[in-house]
Design a protein that fits this description.
heterodimer, A: 288 residues, mainly alpha, 11 helices, B: alpha/beta, Coagulation Factor XIII, Chain A, domain 1, six-stranded mixed β-sheet, 12 helices
Chain lengths: 288, 440
C-alpha cells in the first residue's frame, strides 16, 4: 500500500461547517448540550462496551458476578432477616421479596460507585482530548444496565420457583428502572464532579453506599412505617424504586404516593447534579 | 478545498488562560484543605494588607497565555514554536477544548481534530481491534469511518498479526505504531497536533512525518507544535513564536525559527561573561561566537552545505600586551556526541603576535552538517596554557540546504546521520574477477 499518496478530494469531509465553533470563557448554567451528547452517542456505546468487557476480564465467573453478588446477599438476608428475625415480607416468600429489591439496588450501588470514580479514572483522557464529559457517567449507567439484565434473569427463575405469576403491573417496570437510572445518574454526577476536586469522595463512597442500603427498604418492607412517614420515605428515591419493583413483579400492595415523592427527588438529584457537573466540567482538565 | 483557500479557518482574539498556583496546580485538594483555606484566607489577606501587599491574588495566579490573537486561513499549515512553558500546549489545549480560556475567544470554522498525545483512550485489557474503534471514537471518528479505514490503519501500523491480542501484550513500539495509525487516519478540516511525532523508532517517525506532510498537502488546516525545527521548516511555511504566553512573532518559518534561536541565545547562551562554567586563566577571553556568510552577514540559521565562516571575537586581559602561541579549538557536538573538531594549531599553526582584540575566523567551504540543532564548544590556549573554555557555548542551527548540489538530500538526521562528506559515485561495468580473467 502506498502511504505517500495524497487523499483524493472524495475522502475529505463534504463541506466545511458554516457555523464556527466558538470557544470562550463563558460558563453559563443554561447550556446543557443535549445535542452534542447525541452526536457523541457512538463514543457512549464504545465506552459502555469497554466497561463491560474490562470489568470481568481475567475473572473465572465473568459476567456471572453480576448475578452472584445479589444472590449471596439475598441468601444472607434470607437467613438472618427472614428466618431468624422473622422480618415481615408483605405476604410473599422472603427470598424473592428480598431479591426483587436487591436487583435494582445492586444496579444503583454499582452505577453510583463506578460513576463517582469515572472522571478520576479517565484523568488522562480528560486532560488530553475533548468530548462531553457527561459521556463518562452515562456510559457507566449503560454498562450497569447490562449487569442489571443478567441479575434480573434470576428474578424470573425465583418467581417460577415460588409459582408467582406476574401481573399486568409489570408494564411499569421500565418506568421504575428509569427512575433508578435517573437517581443513580443524579447522584453519580454529583459524586464524580466532587471527586475531581475532592478525593475525599473516594473514602466516603463505601460508607455512603452501605448507609444508603440501610435506609432503603431492601431487607424490610416500607409498610413497617406508618403514614405520613412512609410517603416521606420517598425522599430517598430508591425507596420508591424498590417498593415499585416489588409491586410490579410480585403484586404486593401498591406503593402509592411514595412513588411520586421519589420521582420528584430523583429529578431534583438529576437536575442539580447536571448543573453542578456542567459548572465544574470546564475546569476538570485543570484540576484533575 | 482549493476553493475555500483563503477563507478563515481559525480566528483567535485576545485569548488568555490563567492558572492558579498552589492549591489546584499541585493536584487535587481535600475538603479539609479547602476548609482550612477558607478559614485562614481572611486572616492571610488581613496580614497581607497590613504588610501593604494588596495584590496577593495576583501573586497566586499566572497567565499561561495572554492577549493571544491570530488568524489562520483554510489550508494553511502553521508551526507553533517556543521554549518550554511558553504556552504552546496551553494554546493547543484551549483550541481543542480540553480546557476553557479565562478570557478572550477563539472561533474554529470546520471540524476539529486534535492530537495532543498518541494512544489516548487505549485500554490495556482490550485487543488492538477494540482499541482502534474506542480510540477512534474518542478522537471523534464515526464507526462507519473507522470501518472504512480499518484496513488502511492496520497496514500503516504493521501489527496485523496481533490485532486481536490485548494491547497489554504489545511491545511499546507496536503499541505506539497502532496508536499513531489511528490518529493519522483522522480526517478533520482543522488538525491540531502537539509534539507527538517523537514516538516510535526512526523509520516510523519518518513515516509519521510523511503522513503529516500529506495532510498538509491535502489542503487541510494544521496547527503543529514541535521542538524539531527541521520538521517545522519542512512542514510549515509560516510559524508563530510564543514567549511567556504571548505571541512574540509570526512570519515565515525560517525567520521565526531565527528569532526563536535568538531568544534561546539571549537566555541560555547569554553573555559568556556570565557563564559560571567558564574555565581558563583568562589572559584571553572569547567575547562572542557566531557564523557569518561570505559577505560577512551574521547567520541565525546556517544552510547545510553553505560556505560559512565561524567567527570568534576575542579580547586580551591586558590591552597593552600582544599574545603569542595562541590556538583555538572549536568542537561541534550533538549533545554528548562529538562530531568533529576545528583545531587551529592542527590544520594550521599557532597564532603569533595577536593584537589585544580581534577575530579568529574559521572558513568552511561546505558546512558538512545535516539540518538540525548542534552544540558548539570552544577552547582557547595562549602560551600553551588554557586561557578560556566554555562547553555548550552556542547552539548551532543548520537549516535546509543542498550539500551535494543535487537537490536530493533528505534532511532526516535520525536515519542518515548528522555528518555529510563530499564524495562521488561511479559505475564500473566489470567485476573484479572478470578483470583478472581478461588479464590471464
Amino acid at each position: 500500500m502506498d502511504m505517500s499518496e495524497v487523499p483524493t478530494p472524495a475522502q475529505l469531509p463534504p463541506e466545511p461547517a458554516r457555523i464556527p465553533l466558538t470557544i470562550t470563557s463563558d460558563r453559563s448554567w443554561s447550556r446543557l448540550r443535549f445535542r452534542e451528547i447525541w452526536e457523541y452517542r457512538e463514543l457512549l456505546g464504545f465506552l459502555a462496551l469497554r466497561d463491560i468487557k474490562v470489568r470481568y476480564k481475567q475473572t473465572v465467573f465473568g459476567i456471572a458476578w453480576a448475578l452472584i453478588q445479589p444472590l449471596f446477599t439475598m441468601l444472607v438476608f434470607s437467613l438472618f432477616f427472614g428466618r431468624l428475625a422473622k422480618m415481615p415480607s408483605d405476604g410473599v416468600p422472603y427470598p424473592i421479596f428480598c431479591y426483587a429489591a436487591l436487583v435494582p439496588w445492586s444496579f444503583f450501588a454499582g452505577a453510583v460507585s463506578h460513576a463517582a470514580d469515572s472522571m478520576v479514572a479517565s484523568a488522562n483522557l480528560i486532560s488530553k482530548v475533548y468530548f462531553p464529559r457527561i459521556i463518562m457517567p452515562l456510559a457507566v449507567m449503560l454498562s450497569g444496565l447490562v449487569d442489571f439484565l443478567v441479575a434480573f434473569t434470576l428474578v424470573i427463575g425465583l418467581m417460577a420457583y415460588y409459582h408467582l405469576v406476574p401481573t399486568l403491573q409489570i408494564i411499569w417496570l421500565p418506568a421504575l428502572l428509569l427512575l433508578a437510572v435517573v437517581t443513580a445518574l443524579g447522584v453519580g454526577l454529583w459524586l464524580s464532579a466532587l471527586n475531581v476536586q475532592f478525593r475525599d469522595v473516594r473514602y466516603t463512597l463505601p460508607f455512603l453506599v452501605q448507609f444508603w442500603l440501610f435506609v432503603t427498604p431492601v431487607a424490610y418492607p416500607s409498610s413497617l412505617l406508618p403514614e405520613p412517614w412512609r410517603t416521606l420515605y420517598g425522599i430517598n428515591p430508591m425507596a420508591g424504586v424498590v417498593e415499585g419493583f416489588r409491586w410490579a413483579l410480585l403484586g404486593t400492595a401498591a406503593p402509592g404516593p411514595i412513588i411520586a415523592v421519589s420521582a420528584l427527588f430523583a429529578l431534583i438529584f438529576l437536575i442539580t447534579g447536571l448543573l453542578y457537573f456542567q459548572r465544574m466540567e470546564s475546569i476538570f482538565a485543570d484540576i484533575i | 478545498m482549493v476553493a475555500t483557500m483563503g477563507s478563515l479557518a481559525i480566528r483567535v482574539e485576545n485569548l488568555g488562560k490563567q492558572y492558579r498556583l498552589g492549591g489546584f496546580s499541585t493536584g487535587y485538594s481535600t475538603i479539609r484543605e479547602t476548609l482550612t483555606d477558607a478559614f485562614l484566607s481572611p486572616f492571610r489577606r488581613l496580614q497581607a494588607l497590613a504588610r501593604g501587599q494588596g495584590a496577593i491574588e495576583a501573586a497566586e495566579n499566572f497567565w499561561a497565555l495572554r492577549n493571544v490573537s491570530f488568524t489562520v486561513a483554510h489550508g494553511e499549515v502553521v508551526g507553533i514554536i517556543g521554549r518550554n512553558g511558553a504556552g504552546k500546549t496551553t494554546l493547543l489545549k484551549v483550541l481543542s477544548r480540553v480546557t476553557t480560556p479565562t478570557e478572550g475567544r477563539a472561533q474554529l470554522f470546520g471540524r476539529v481534530g486534535s492530537l495532543l498525545e498518541v494512544g489516548v483512550g487505549f485500554h490495556q485489557e482490550l485487543t488492538g481491534r477494540e482499541n482502534v474503534y474506542l480510540s477512534g471514537a474518542i478522537m471523534g471518528m464515526k464507526k462507519k469511518e473507522i470501518d472504512r479505514k480499518f484496513d488502511e490503519i492496520l497496514a500503516f501500523s504493521g501489527v496485523e498479526d496481533f490485532i486481536d491480542t490485548p494491547v497489554k501484550r504489545y511491545s511499546s513500539g507496536m503499541y505506539t505504531r497502532l496508536a499513531f495509525s489511528v490518529a493519522a487516519h483522522m480526517e478533520p478540516e482543522i488538525l491540531i497536533v502537539d509534539e507527538v511525532l517523537a514516538v516510535g523508532d526512526m523509520a516510523f517517525q519518518e513515516k509519521c512525518l510523511g503522513k503529516m506532510s500529506d495532510v498538509a498537502k491535502a489542503g487541510r488546516t494544521v496547527l503543529f507544535v514541535s521542538h524539531n525545527m527541521s520538521a517545522i521548516s519542512q512542514l510549515c511555511p509560516t510559524s508563530i513564536l510564543l514567549e511567556d504566553g504571548r505571541i512574540n512573532f509570526r512570519g515565515p518559518s525560517p525567520e521565526t525559527i531565527g528569532r526563536y534561536i535568538n531568544l534561546m541565545q539571549l537566555t541560555k547562551f547569554s553573555q559568556f561573561d556570565r557563564r559560571q562554567d567558564r574555565r581558563g586563566n583568562g589572559v584571553l577571553r572569547i567575547k562572542r561566537l557566531y557564523l557569518e556568510d561570505e559577505s560577512g552577514r551574521e547567520l541565525e540559521v546556517a544552510p547545510c552545505g553553505a560556505k560559512v565562516r565561524l567567527v570568534l571575537e576575542y579580547a586580551g586581559a591586558d590591552p597593552g600586551k600582544t599574545l603569542a602561541d595562541v590556538a583555538v579549538h572549536v568542537l561541534v557536538a550533538n549533545g554528548a556526541t562529538r562530531l568533529f573538531s576545528l583545531l587551529s594549531n592542527i590544520s594550521g599553526d599557532l597564532f603569533q603576535n595577536l593584537p589585544p582584540s580581534g577575530r579568529f575566523i574559521c572558513s568552511l567551504d561546505r558546512l558538512p552538517l545535516m539540518p538540525g540543532n548542534y552544540d558548539l564548544h570552544f577552547l582557547c590556549y595562549a602560551g600553551r596554557q588554557l586561557a578560556d573554555k566554555i562547553f555548550f557555548a552556542w547552539p548551532l542551527v543548520v537549516g535546509d540546504g543542498d550539500f551535494f548540489g543535487t537537490q536530493r538530500l533528505s534532511n532526516n538526521r535520525d536515519i542518515h546521520g548528522s555528518l555529510l562528506v563530499p564524495h562521488t559515485w561511479t559505475l564500473d561495468p566489470r567485476r573484479r574477477g572478470q578483470e583478472d580473467k581478461e588479464e590471464d
